Amino acid sequence: MVSLKNVIDEEIACQEWFLPGNSCCAGCGLEIALRWAMKALGPKTAMITPASCLNVVIGLWPKTAPNFSQFNMAFAAGAAAATGVSAAFKAKNYKFPGQGWDEMVSICFAGDGGTTDIGIQGLSGAAERNSNIIYVCYDNEAYMNTGIQRSSSTPHGALTTTTPFGKERYKKNVPAIMAAHEIPYVATCSISEPLDIYEKFKKAKSIEGCKYIQIFAPCPPGWGYLAEESIEIARLAVKTGFWILYEIENGVLTLSKKSKSLVDPSKRVPIIEYVSKQKRFAGISEKTLIEIQERVDHDWEKIVDQLECQSR
To 10 degrees, the CA torsion angle through 145, 74, 68, 9? Predict the structure, then answer.
């Protein structure tokens, strides 16, 4: 077992910037993702939150859960607002003793609906400008806050209130889309690997320009499993290869520790071990199950091809 003392400063590990008393559901992947991201970023952070679960669970002023600057924002404007905040910090260039405004981080923390669908135009614009922001998608694979409707991040075969017979289309690969913008840093994380989240946010904070991080964040009520199983579900997503952990830094792809061995297909857990634990895949046909497994294998083939191209 890895000790936090061996990885991060113990004092930082004990600090919480997203405080108890918030109204997240038990087992919420968003809460775990946000807590560990903020351990890496610290209090000199200005967070933009487009419409999502996060807007709802922060609570009402003056008893709000975030112990850092946080702004609620319209659904489509997250990346644009974060760009404006970053530009304001640069223009003002505040250097008051003990304040460190010149070191402030501008971040957008959005759900998959506000990222892969409604917010992608602003996100693409920020990436094209290489705005000095961190854009985060906490990916719970549907519009959970408004009734569990499908998003373009919902996986093939999953039941939602708008796909009652299972979604026909496959999940949109937004990390690949962001990498195609040639921004300096793209990464994927999972709540099952909190130290990986911490390390990737630390790295993103140190890089100038537009950074994109997508975090796999299971949702107990939306996916249909017990709250105490969130980490197990997230871990199975990685072990099956359904969710691949990697970084793309200045165009160079690197697999993260938990995904490196999965280049060998025999090391991957069969996808049925993952989908069978979630009610959103209830009644899934054998045909659809085979299609999901084939899609996982296909995604890994693309990753392997990219790694081989880099090594030539």
Answer: 70
Element (H, E) at 39: helix 29-41
Distance CA 86, CA 54 (A): 21
Residue 111 domain boundaries: 4-311
Six-digit token string for 234: 């997230």
CB atoms within 10 A of CB 301: 11
- Cα separation, 205 vs 266, in Å, equals 36
Residues of the chain short of pLDDT 70, as ranges, are: 1-13, 94-102
User: Would the pTM count as exceeding 0.90?
Assistant: yes
CATH number for position 178:
3.40.50.970
CA distance linking residue 293 with residue 295, whole number of Å? 5
Query: Looking at this protein, which amino acid is placed at residue 4?
Result: L
| Three-class secondary structure of residue 104 per DSSP | coil
* pLDDT for the residue numbered 286: 96
Please state, in angstroms and rounded to a whole number, the distance separating the CA atoms of residues 23 and 60: 11
The strand pair at 45-50 and 246-249 is best described as unpaired
Per-residue confidence (pLDDT) for residue 3, from 0 to 100: 53
Residue 5's pLDDT is what?
A: 53
Helices and strands, counts by H and E, the chain = 12, 8
Structural domain tally of the chain? 1
Which CA distances in Å does 93 have to 96, 107, 204?
9, 18, 21
Tell me what pLDDT residue 1 has. 44
